[in-house]
Amino acid sequence: MVKVLLTGGSGFIAAHIIDILLARGFDTVVTVRSDEKGQRILDAHPNTPKEKLSYVVVKDVAADGAFDDAVKSNPPFDYVLHTASPFHYNVQDPVKDFLDPAIKGTTGVLKAVKAYAPTVKRVVVTSSFAAITNPKEHPKVYSEKNWNPVTWEDAMDRSQTYRASKTFAEKAAWDFVEKEKPNFDIATINPPLVLGPVVHYLNSLDSINTSNMRIAGFIRGEYKDKLPPTATYLWVDVHDVALAHVRAIEVDAAGGQRFFLTAGLYSTKDIADIIRESFPALADRLPPPDSPSDMPADVYGYDNSKSIEVLGIKYHTLKESVEETVKSLLAVGA
Length: 334
Ligand code: NDP
Hints:
There is one protein chain. The protein has helices at about 10-25, 35-45, 95-115, 150-155, 160-180, 215-220, 240-250, 270-280, 305-310, 320-330, and strands spanning about 5, 25-30, 55, 80, 120-125, 140, 185-190, 195, 235, 260, 265, 300. By secondary structure, it is an alpha/beta fold. The protein has one domain (about 5-330): 3-Layer(aba) Sandwich (Rossmann fold). Helix 1 (about 10-25) links the parallel strand 1 and strand 2. The structure holds NADPH dihydro-nicotinamide-adenine-dinucleotide phosphate. NADPH dihydro-nicotinamide-adenine-dinucleotide phosphate (NDP) binds near residues 14, 33, 85, 101 and 193. NADPH dihydro-nicotinamide-adenine-dinucleotide phosphate binds near residues 11 and 37. Belongs to the NAD(P)-dependent epimerase/dehydratase family. Dihydroflavonol-4-reductase subfamily. It comes from Aspergillus campestris (strain IBT 28561).
C-alpha cells in the first residue's frame, strides 16, 4: 500500500485531497492542530478503516522539530503533501502569524522527512499564484517561469504579508532541495483563487474558508449595490487543485516541477451573472445585471499547459464551480 502524510488536514483544499486519496486507495494520515479537528475528519468518514485514514496532532508548525514525530510511521510514508499554511486577511503580527508558520512550516517538514522518513520519494508543497504574481508589473502571460519579486520589507505591509509568506515558503523549499540534496524530490502546486464546495463537516457560517468568502458575500447580499473588485483575474476549481496534488505524486515526471494551476480568467461580474442565472431566487441580493466588469481589456494571459500535459488536469468551468459552491454554502446556512 502507498502511504501519504497530508499536513493541514482540516483545510478546505485538504478536505478535497483526502477524498481523492481515499478513492484512489492511498493510506492517508493527516496532521491537524487538535484532536477535536482530527476526530471531526474521522467522523466524516465512518466507513473508512483506521489503517486507511488517521490523524496526528501537530500543534504549531513553526516550532522546531514540529514534524519530527509526525513523519515517523509504521508502515513508513511514501509521499508527503504539505498544505498547512495560514490563509486569512487578519494579519496582527506578520512574522509570527504568517511568515514563520509558512516558511518554518515548510522547511520543518522537509528537514523532518530528510532526517526521519528515508522512504519518502516526493514532497508536494502547496504554494500559490501569490508566489508567481508581480502585481506592480504584470507580464503579458503568466506561467511557472514567473516569481513574485516581493521583499521581506514589503512583507511587513499587511496587504502583502500573505503573498510574501507563500513566496518565501516556496523559495525556501527549492533552496532546501538544492543545498541539502535529499533523497526525495519536490513539486509545488501554485493555484490562484480556489473556488468550490465547502466541506460541511469543517464549515459553519462563521468559518467559511477565505477563498469562498466572496461568493458567500454575494449570497448574503453584501454586494447588492456594487460588484466587489476582482483583484486577481485568475481562478481554479478546488477539485482540480486537489487532483493536481495527487497527480503530482502519481506522475513520475512531476518531480522537480512547479505547476501553475488555473482554469482561466474571470471577474466578479462573471460570478454574479452565474448566480443570477442559476439561482433566480437569489437575484435580489445581487448587484444590478448591467454592472460593468472591472477586467481591463489588456489583462494578462496565462499558460497552464504544463498542468494539462504533465498532470492531466481537465479544468472545471466557472459555471460548474460557482454553482457547486453556492449550493454548498446554502447548505451551511449562508
Ligand atoms: P484553509 O484555511 O482552509 O486551510 C489552511 C490549513 O492550514 C488548515 O488546515 C489550517 O489549520 C492550517 N494552518 C493554518 N495556519 C496554521 C498554523 N499556523 N499551524 C498549523 N496549521 C495551520 O485554506 P486552504 O485550504 O484554502 O489553503 C490550503 C493551502 O492552499 C494553503 O497553503 C494556502 O496558502 C494554499 N492556497 C490556497 C488558495 C485558495 O484560494 N484557497 C490559493 C492558493 C494557495 P486549522 O484548520 O487548524 O486552522
